[in-house]
Write a structure and sequence with these properties.
The protein is mainly beta and 347 residues long. The protein has two helices and 23 strands.
């Protein structure tokens, strides 16, 4: 099968269709050409921009760990706008979907200024480009409904297993919110929970957002990464560059190490996978690269683009970005969103 540049294929196909007025609708026995998708589009402004919604949402949560569920009814608002080379989010951080099962230490609250205006804002580039090295912003990005994606935690444990879930402890072993079975970070059915500030944020697969979008087993755009590239959830094409290929559940290329790092708290107390340092990247073992991304075609970008995928297993949401980070998408590197250590690194 021959491969030709996408732009040339489009040009040649257009000329032949005009000249022959036939054979452009599919069918026939001739050998198909394979489109070589470029790594990125010139702009992402064609996808979900502008995009906004406001309303109220009732949600059941145990709030402050009360034994009986508390029903909250909160206003939500989010708005994405595009201007020049920037995509800008304004949001109050309240989900536009219901959630259940959260055991939040702090009840969710709208993130607003003293005037009541939405307090969350982020600006991403509309023309993302791949960098020569990966970057480690604290926030992976924001969901399309204005919620922060922050897969890491500030919780740590010491070598002897003295742990501080709230962060600020003396330990170097970074606790994982979803792959651990020793502690409970109180995440809800959307794999999200609430920080002490009352800010609701996502740690893993945004099940409730996906249910609201109701696309079923299909590539579903659920957010924008800190470098401006799109974030999809769970599904992708079997052949990354062929939108006619079957849909599959995408898998990451991370696995738990065969042996724990030196000094790690005992496995009989904390099973492997409980800490960020327990994981290692094995290139080619899954569908995605070390930042849980790949290049391919998507419904929104049929010519191809680099995109991130949220997976059902570690790292869940990407812990590093492959693109150039510009704009004001979040705090600088160094916080809970730091990526796992590189392959072979110790604790």
């Amino acid at each position: 099968m021959r491969s030709v540049p996408y732009a040339l294929l489009v040009s040649v196909t257009s000329v032949l269709c005009t000249a022959l007025l036939t054979g452009c609708g599919g069918g026939g026995d001739s050998e198909p050409l394979t489109v070589s998708a470029p790594a990125q589009t010139k702009t992402t402004a064609t996808a979900l921009c502008p995009y906004s919604e406001s309303g109220t949402q009732s949600m059941a949560t145990r709030g402050t760990n009360a034994t009986a569920p508390t029903v909250l009814t909160l206003p939500f608002t989010y708005s994405w706008s595009c201007s020049g080379t920037s995509r800008t989010l304004v949001s109050n951080g309240v989900p536009n979907h219901p959630f259940t099962g959260g055991a939040f230490a702090t009840a969710i609250s709208a993130q607003v200024t003293s005037t009541g205006a939405p307090a969350i804002s982020a600006t991403y580039t509309l023309t993302p480009s791949l960098a020569t090295t990966t970057a480690s912003p604290q926030f992976a990005g924001y969901s399309i409904n204005g919620l922060k994606m922050e897969p890491g935690t500030a919780g740590t444990c010491t070598d002897t297993g003295i742990c501080n879930e709230a962060g600020g402890g003396a330990g170097v072993w970074r606790m994982e919110a979803l792959s651990a079975n020793k502690w409970d970070f109180g995440v809800d059915s959307n794999h999200s929970h609430v920080q002490p500030t009352g800010e609701y944020h996502i740690h893993g697969m945004p099940e409730n957002l996906m249910a609201k979008l109701a696309k079923g087993q299909a590539m579903t755009l659920v957010g924008w990464a800190a470098d401006g590239f799109p974030i999809y959830a769970r599904y992708g094409f079997t052949d990354a560059n062929n939108s006619k290929s079957a849909i599959k559940v995408l898998t990451g290329s991370w696995r738990t190490k065969a042996n724990p790092d030196a000094g790690r708290p005992p496995i009989n107390l904390y099973a492997m996978g409980s800490f960020r340092q327990d994981w290692e990247y094995i290139a080619g073992s899954g569908d995605l690269d070390e930042c849980n991304g790949r290049t391919g075609v998507t419904p929104e970008f049929p010519a191809g683009i680099y995109y991130y995928a949220i997976t059902d297993t570690y790292p869940f949401i990407h812990r590093c970005v492959k693109g150039v980070v510009t704009g004001s998408g979040g705090p600088p590197a160094g916080g809970p969103g730091l990526p796992p250590p590189p392959p072979g690194a110790g604790g």
